[in-house]
């Protein structure tokens, strides 16, 4: 299932419905176009209310959810979890972290259990420069300097010095 925080519907594709071996008699008639769903309009097949469980390890939460069933050819996902399910689960979604947290009787799923200290990402690690630095004086305020790496190619070194000096009022 794809979590789509922009979707106002919870979608179940007919191919998934069939794989679950659900009776067609459970489908309630609901025929309306969905525009922008796949880049064009598609008609819904019906709606079905099912128990929906999200879990990880021993923590889980089950709700009754109404899915709009859509029959499209070769869907990339089994369905879409939209705002109705996310709201019913009281879920918090972080697309940046690719995580979802939701309350369960056993506690909040998605919380770190072992180490609650924030992890430093590789890209955020601060360290020593990987080259020797040289001090370069500003043009107008020569008593002030800025430092650049000595391993820069000559044209990049000249370009960087020119840029910093051009915007000296910002950097100095």
TrEMBL record:
Q: Which InterPro entries does this chain map to?
A: Peptidase_aspartic_dom_sf
Where is the segment annotated Disordered? Answer: 103-138
Instruction: Determine the domain of life of the protein's source.
Output: Eukaryota
Q: Where is the composition biased (Basic and acidic residues)?
A: 118-129
In terms of PANTHER family, this protein maps to: GAG-PRO-LIKE PROTEIN (PTHR33240:SF15), OS08G0508500 PROTEIN (PTHR33240)
What is the protein's given name? Uncharacterized protein
């Amino acid at each position: 299932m794809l979590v789509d925080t922009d979707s106002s519907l919870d979608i179940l594709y007919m191919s998934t419905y069939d794989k679950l071996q659900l009776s067609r008699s459970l489908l309630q008639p609901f025929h309306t176009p969905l525009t922008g769903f796949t880049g064009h309009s598609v008609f819904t097949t019906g709606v079905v209310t099912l128990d929906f469980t999200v879990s990880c390890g021993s923590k889980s939460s089950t709700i009754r959810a109404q899915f709009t069933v859509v029959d499209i050819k070769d869907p990339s996902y089994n369905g879409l979890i939209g705002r109705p399910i996310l709201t019913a689960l009281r879920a918090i979604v972080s697309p940046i972290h690719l995580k979802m947290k939701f309350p369960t009787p056993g506690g909040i799923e998605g919380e770190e259990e072992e180490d609650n200290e924030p992890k430093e990402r590789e890209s955020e690690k601060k360290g020593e420069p990987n080259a020797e630095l040289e001090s370069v004086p500003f043009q107008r305020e020569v008593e002030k300097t800025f430092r650049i790496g000595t391993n820069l190619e000559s044209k990049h070194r000249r370009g960087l010095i020119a840029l910093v000096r051009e915007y000296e009022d910002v950097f100095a």
